[in-house]
UniProtKB/TrEMBL annotation:
The keyword Nucleotide-binding does not apply. This is D-tyrosyl-tRNA(Tyr) deacylase. Gene3D superfamilies: 3.40.50.2300, lambda repressor-like DNA-binding domains. It comes from the Bacteria. It comes from Turicibacter sanguinis PC909. PROSITE patterns: HTH_LACI_2. Keywords: DNA-binding, Transcription, Transcription regulation. Residues 5-58 form the HTH lacI-type domain. Pfam families: LacI, Peripla_BP_3. InterPro entries: HTH_LacI, LacI/GalR-like_sensor, Lambda_DNA-bd_dom_sf, Peripla_BP_I. The keyword DNA-binding applies.
């Protein structure tokens, strides 16, 4: 068995041009007599063409690039798994790239995927800089963004503002007057601005006298634990609203370090609807976003774009407020 046989070798053995073998492998126009010569050589030598290399020469590669900021995120993982499933069911092969939250790698990955002539690119975005806009504007392949909005770019986003508003209004309705909102940088438009603004508007709905302290973390539980630990040295809020469940789990650790409990001393909420949030005691009050739906919709949308069908420039995913025992009425 000789699997190392090249297209050049096949051409020499069959007595045809290398370009003829290439056309044969890519279902191009070749005479029946020549097809038989090439087929016989391939069968005798058990030749197996490189599927990826072969696809790059075809008009349709059947590969879709997926760029993710990190694979350790529960939300991102669920979205990508749903994308992967739907793409494969429709005959496309996902190429998943992890950038570990490095913006330079996001830009580089978009450019590399375009050079590889993938049929489409999906970016799971955390923030959009001018460098993103520049490289996206030069693309000649269908492009889809998940999680952020960019003018002229097809996008799928969570309904962050209204989800935040519902959490803020719920905490207000439960009688809380002294609240910490632990958010993330405004560089992240969806979470750092839209979600934050929704929470603040909900908290102030029919009550502008509430004491609200705004603090900033990143997406790690470690930093949120440190921030809340320091905040509790000065004063104790009646509730802490966290921008994600992971941030909330860090805040919960800090609350326990001060020998306080949830919700007896401090009520606590998050966003994300992680499975882990239901395993702690008490289960976390949170917003559950439809992550699997996002993934399936993303795959369907990029397929529509690749196949020339019209799609809406912006699609918004819904949510559900899960009221658990981590919030009590004051």
């Amino acid at each position: 068995m000789n699997k190392a046989l090249t297209i050049k070798d096949i051409a020499e053995i069959a007595g045809v041009a290398k370009s003829t073998v290439s056309r044969y492998l890519n279902n191009g126009k070749v005479s029946e007599e020549t097809k038989e010569k090439i087929r016989r050589v391939i069968e005798e030598h058990n030749y197996e063409p490189n599927a990826f290399a072969q696809s790059l020469k075809a008009k349709k590669t059947k590969f879709v690039g997926i760029i993710a900021p990190g694979l350790d995120s529960i939300v991102t993982s669920k979205v990508i798994m749903a994308i992967d499933t739907t793409l494969r069911e429709n005959g496309y092969n996902p190429l998943i790239i992890n950038t570990s939250l490095r913006k330079d790698l996001e830009i580089e990955s978009i450019e590399n995927l375009a050079r590889l002539k993938v049929d489409g690119i999906i970016l799971v975005a955390t923030e959009i800089k001018d460098a993103h806009r520049d490289v996206i504007s030069q693309l000649k392949v269908p492009f889809l963004m998940i999680g952020q909005v960019c003018d002229g770019v097809t996008s799928i986003v969570n309904d962050d503002y209204h989800a935040g508003f519902e959490v803020g209004r719920y905490i207000q309705e439960m009688g809380h007057q002294d609240v910490i909102y632990l958010g993330v940088s405004k560089d992240d438009t969806a979470v750092g601005i839209n979600r934050r603004n929704g929470v603040l508007d909900g908290l102030r709905y029919q009550n502008n006298l509430m004491n609200i302290r705004i603090m900033e973390s990143d997406f790690t539980s470690e930093l949120s634990e440190k921030i809340v630990n320091d905040a509790l040295k000065d004063s104790k809020p009646s509730a802490i609203i966290c921008a994600t469940d992971r941030i909330a789990l860090g805040a919960r650790k800090a609350i326990q370090r001060h020998n306080l409990s949830v919700p007896e001393d401090i009520s606590l909420t998050g966003f994300g609807g992680y499975d882990l949030a239901t395993l702690v005691t008490p289960p976390l009050t949170t917003i559950k976003f439809e992550n699997e739906k996002t993934g399936h919709l993303a795959a369907e949308t990029i397929i529509d774009l690749m196949e020339g069908r019209d799609v809406a420039e912006l699609q918004v995913i819904g949510y559900q407020l899960i009221k658990s025992k981590s919030v009590k009425h004051k």
